[in-house]
Write a structure and sequence with these properties.
341 residues, binds adenosine-5'-tetraphosphate, 13 helices, 5 strands, mainly alpha
Length: 341
C-alpha cells in the first residue's frame, strides 16, 4: 500500500501511554480532546505508545489489558477510524528503527537536558531509571518524524520534546539532505496544564504521590465527584481566575469552562457572591454528566474485541505504509546499502 498525503490536509501525530487503568482528566483535556478535533482538519495519526510504556516496569498482563483499554477510551472519546489512523506503536517496527538513527545524531548532553527524564527518573529513584527512560524523548522524535507530521497535539509538559524533534530534524536534513518535515507543537493554552486537585501548583499526573487530586475518567463517578468537592482552593471566597494567587480556583474554572464551553469571564460573573462551595459542586456535577456516557462507551468497545482488533489491524497497515516510506528515505540518505529481497 503506497502512502499518499491527503491534499490540503496537514498531518497530525500524537501518542498516549497505556500505563494506567484509566486516562485522567489532564490527558483528556490537554491532549485527547484535541486529537478528536484535529481528525476533522488534519490527516491524523494517533497511537497507543506501548514502547514508551516499558521505559518503566510494567506487568505484561496489565500492559496488554491497558493497551486495549487505551484504544477503547480513544474510540469512546470520539476518534473515528474512518477519519483518522489509530494504531499501536509496537505494531509498526519502523519506530524503533528510526529511533536508532535519531539516537546516533543526539548529543548526550542534549538528551540529559530533558526535564521529563529528570522528573521521571527522580520519581523512580535515579539508580533504578533505565537507559530506555533516558532515550524515550528520542524515540518520540522518531515517532513524529516517521509521519512527516506538521502538528503534534500535546500538553505543555511535552513542549521540550517537540523542540528536540525540530532540532534533530533540522540536523538530519542539514547533514544528509531534506528528509523530514519540521513539526509544530499544537498546544491549546487554556488546557495545556490541568492541575492536581489537592496540589493545584502541580500537574495532574497518574504518578502523583497521592491519588486524592487525580481524576481518573474510568473511576466510579461518585469517587471523582467527591474529589472535586474537596478540591484545595484558598482562604478567600471570591471566584476569580488568577493562576498565581488562586491556582485551585483557577483550575476548577478551567475545567468548568472546558467541559461546558462557557468563557471564564462569564463564569466569574455567574459565581459572583456564591463562594467556592457552589463552584466545586457544579464542577463535580458537570464532570459526572460528561464522564458517565464516556465510561459506558468505553465498556461497549471493550466488550467487542473483534472490533478493537479490526481497528488496530487497519490502523497498523495504514501507519506502516507511511512509516516504511520515511524510514527507507532516511536509510538511503544516511548511507545504508539497500536490502535486496
Ligand atoms: N495534567 C495535564 N494537563 C494537560 N495535559 C496533560 N497530559 C498529561 N498530563 C496532563 C498530556 O496527555 C498526553 C498523554 O500523556 P502520556 O500518556 O504521555 O502520559 P504522561 O504525560 O506520562 O501523563 P502523566 O499522568 O503525567 O504520567 P506520568 O505521571 O507518568 O508523568 C500528553 O500529550 C501529555 O502532554
Amino acid at each position: 500500500m503506497a502512502s499518499e498525503r491527503i491534499p490540503g490536509r496537514p498531518r497530525a501525530l500524537s501518542g498516549i501511554q497505556p500505563t494506567a487503568g484509566s486516562f485522567h482528566l489532564g490527558n483528556y483535556l490537554g491532549a485527547v480532546r484535541q486529537y478528536v478535533a484535529l481528525q476533522e482538519t488534519h490527516d491524523a495519526f494517533y497511537m497507543v505508545v506501548d514502547l514508551h510504556a516499558i521505559t518503566v516496569p510494567q506487568d505484561p498482563a496489565e500492559l496488554r489489558a491497558n493497551t486495549r483499554l487505551a484504544v477503547a477510551q480513544l474510540l469512546a472519546a470520539g476518534l473515528d477510524p474512518e477519519r483518522c489512523t489509530l494504531f499501536i506503536q509496537s505494531h509498526v517496527p519502523e519506530h524503533t528503527q528510526l529511533g536508532w538513527l535519531m539516537n546516533c545524531i543526539t548529543g548526550f548532553g542534549e538528551a540529559s537536558r530533558m526535564t521529563q527524564f529528570k522528573d521521571k527518573s527522580a520519581k523512580q529513584g535515579a539508580d533504578r531509571a533505565t537507559v530506555g527512560l533516558f532515550t524515550y524523548p528520542i524515540l518520540q522524535v522518531a515517532d513524529i518524524l516517521l509521519y512527516q507530521a506538521d502538528a503534534v497535539p500535546v500538553g505543555e509538559d511535552q513542549r521540550q520534546h517537540i523542540e528536540l524533534t525540530r532540532d534533530l530534524a533540522e540536523r538530519f536534513n542539514g547533514r544528509f539532505g531534506p528528509t523530514f518535515t519540521l513539526p509544530q507543537a499544537y498546544i491549546v493554552r487554556e488546557v495545556a496544564k490541568i492541575h492536581d486537585l489537592q496540589d493545584p501548583t502541580a500537574k495532574m499526573s497518574k504518578s502523583a504521590a497521592s491519588a486524592k487530586g487525580l481524576v481518573n475518567l474510568l473511576d466510579e463517578p461518585s469517587v471523582s465527584a467527591k474529589k472535586f468537592r474537596s478540591a484545595v482552593t484558598d482562604t478567600e471566597t471570591v471566584v476569580r481566575f488568577d493562576e498565581k494567587d488562586k491556582p485551585g480556583v483557577s483550575n476548577l474554572l478551567t475545567i468548568h469552562s472546558a467541559l461546558t464551553g462557557t468563557g471564564i469571564a462569564e463564569l466569574e460573573e455567574q459565581y459572583a457572591g456564591k463562594g467556592y462551595g457552589a463552584l466545586k459542586t457544579d464542577v463535580a456535577e458537570i464532570f459526572v454528566a460528561w464522564v458517565t456516557p464516556f465510561r459506558e462507551r468505553t465498556q461497549e468497545y471493550l466488550g467487542d474485541p473483534e472490533t478493537l482488533d479490526a481497528v488496530m489491524a487497519k490502523g497498523a497497515e495504514k501507519a506502516r505504509a507511511v512509516a516504511a516510506e520515511t524510514l527507507a528515505a532516511a536509510y538511503d540518505r544516511i548511507g545504508f546499502v539497500p536490502a535486496k529481497h
